[in-house]
Amino acid sequence: MENNEHLAHIRHTLAHLLAQASVGHYPNAMLTLGPAVDNGFYYDIDFGTEKINDEDLIKIEKTMKENLSLWKEFSHKEVSSDEAKEIFKGNIYKLELIDEIISRGEKITLYTCGEFTDLCRGGHVENPSKEIPFDSFKLDRVAGAYWRGSELNKMLTRIYGLSFETKNELDAYILQQEEAKKRDHKKLGKELGLFTVSELVGKGLPMYLPKGNIIKTELERFIRKEKEDLGYSFVTIPHIARKELYIRSGHMGKYDAMMPTMTDENGDEFVMKAMNCPHHFEIYNAEPHSYRNLPLRLAENTTVYRNEKSGELSGLLRVKNLTQDDTHHFIRVDQIESEIEMIFGLMKKVYQIFNFNEYKVEISVRDLKNKNKYFGSDEVWENAENILIKSAKKRGFNYSVEEGEAAFYGPKIDIKVKDSIGREWQLTTIQLDFNQPENFEMDYTGEDGKKHRVVVLHVAIFGSFERFMGVMIEHFAGAFPVWLSPVQVTILPISENQKEYADGIFKLFKESNIRVELDDSNESLGKRIRNAKMQKIPYMIVIGDKERDANTITVEGRTPARPLEGAGGEKLEGITIETFLEKLKKEISEKTLN
Fold it and tell me: Active site residue: 118, 140, 326, 419, which one?
């Protein structure tokens, strides 16, 4: 959640206020849990046979605002388990929580404000009526949620609320969300014919349609060339492996998204790969290595498979099959700093091309209270974490340290970018690993002639192509730069009289490797232009008798207006075919944003 303790306290206070208003309207409702979240708060409630919809939120919100004026201060007290159970008798959810608190040996605390008491650990504002503006929050929507997140439990009603410190911040967020709905990659993916999800194939298994596959292929070509220019070597690995490989890496015991195993006729168990690193480790171990050969950078754009929970799947953003732009750097200790510098340089170049100009760094470290979850010694972990922090400082990044977010074998740097409407997305990951080299006995011969362990950096710049495409669709609102657009130009002859001329232009553009379409359908020119703009095609070439006779073209850009060189707006008339083709090739080769 946002690093703002006061705002978090406001939001948690409002969750209490929501609970009071809900039971005020529905006395038989049973309250469960109500935390603060990134954009506000929610409360999960068992309303019994009552069906709550978005219209009911109006009256609940009205009551919340009426009650807020009566909430002057919070008081709290510790109670025994018997007292707590007496207060919440009849509420099976609170009784379960009380038993859990007792089993952990923790104190049971109750918080009261405005005649409402709830089981709570605390974290509220001191005087809600003074510290929470009436117009800085609103109830947002109703959703379903299983108790404790388990599909084996009862489905509850989750009421979400939005909350910020001021009305202006709330209004800005609402506007952002309205814009986000227009940019929803699932909606645009369907409208633009980019990908589809089939119930028969399975939820969380998106399939790229021809236009979507063009974008994915262009992204793969782009990142491959950038990496090859930096000395990466590309490899290919299978999509399954013996279970023993992942037992050795530790994933079978520590990574709960591993796919179920399959058994062949010999009784050998295989698993679909959920990550590529163990395969790449075995590629490294296939040959001896000298200190002179390092760094060795192995790269692959390949799909992994993860057994994600169905309730967490979402379009391209959360899937069961994800194609990673994965790399593993096998390096000496003295190369760590320069290698991370190189990765940051590549990352910055990529972000500039996609107009991700704002980003922040999060350094994920161990949970010191649960060291048994991780491979390796304290000394190894402290060294690795300090190296990543030093790298971020050297680059001048503002960074935060996220305790407990590291992988079980090493700390990592996660980069979160801001998109064109200000939302944050996690993309690049840089993971420093001293432990798996020990696990897989990955050595090199040093200058002293002795064996030394390599260090591994696990790196993905895009993260996964699926997620990156989902983010990019929303970032550009489907209006991709020309170099990525599935169709870069559409040719629109006004009538049959220009067909031969249009066919010639179409052939020329095809031969020049421009992704071009010719729309000579019987629809009106206006409708064909509208269709091209709806498909967010960057350029439309309109051909009438005037253009045909002068051997020229009229070029119109998509909406919003795309200024064309030499034109005052979005239309350029009387330009030669060669001039426009040269401009188009330059725009594609330079990956110009538009």
Answer: 326
Is 324 known to be catalytic? yes
Which residue has 């009289």 as its token pair? 497
- 110-139 pLDDT, tens digit per residue, is 999 988 999 998 889 999 999 999 999 999
Q: How far apart are CA 363 and CA 429, in angstroms?
A: 10
Residue 255 phi, psi dihedral angles, 5° rounding:
-115, 110
The contacts of residue 491 (CB under 8 Å, 6+ apart) are 502, 505, 506, 509, 516, 517, 518, 519, 540, 541, 543
pLDDT one-digit tens code per residue, 52-111: 988 899 999 999 999 999 999 999 999 999 999 999 999 999 999 999 999 998 999 999
* Bridge partner residues of 299 (DSSP): 234, 327
Q: Which of 183, 280, 412, 583 is catalytic?
A: 412
Q: Establish whether 113 is a catalytic residue.
A: no
Q: Cis omega before residue 238 (within 30°)?
A: no
Told to judge if 452 belongs to the known catalytic residues of this protein, a careful annotator would answer: no
Q: What is the 3-state secondary structure (H, E, C) of 487-518?
A: CCEEEEECCHHHHHHHHHHHHHHHHCCCCEEE
Looking at 317-410, which runs of residues are DSSP E strands? 321-331, 359-365, 399-403
Catalytic residue among 20, 324, 335, 498: 324
Query: Could you tell me how many residues make up the chain?
Result: 594
Q: Which of 121, 326, 129, 141 is nearest to 237 (CA)?
A: 326
d(CA 231, CA 281): 18
Q: Which runs of consecutive H residues, i.e. helices, occur in 274-377?
A: 277-285, 336-353
Tokens of 11: 């939001």
Supply the pTM of this predicted model.
0.83
Catalytic residue, candidates 185, 280, 458, 548: 458
Least confident of 123-132, 236-245, 272-281, 377-386: 377-386
Whole-angstrom distance, CA of residue 135 vs CA of residue 575: 55
Catalytic residue selected from 280, 328, 329, 583:
328
Annotated active-site residue in 277, 366, 419, 475:
277
Distance from the Cα of residue 41 to its chain's centroid: 21
The angle that helices 499-511 and 577-589 make with each other, rounded to 10 degrees, is 30
Domains, the chain, ordered by start: 5-183 (3.30.980.10), 226-239+273-475 (3.30.930.10), 489-589 (3.40.50.800)
The label of the residue with tokens 């609402």 reads 174
Spot the catalytic one: 306, 536, 558, 583: 306
Give the type of residue at 405.
Answer: E
DSSP 587: H
DSSP 89-155: TT-HHHHHHHHHHHHTTPPEEEEEETTEEEE------S-HHHHS-TTSEEEEEEEEEEGGG-TTSPE
Is residue 124 among the annotated active site residues?
no
| CA–CA gap between residue 92 and residue 88 (Å, rounded) | 8
Segment 538-564 mean pLDDT: 81
Question: Rounded distance, CA 153 to CA 479, Å?
Answer: 43
277 is catalytic: yes
d(CA 260, CA 547): 63
Rounded Cα gap, residues 92 and 85, in angstroms: 10
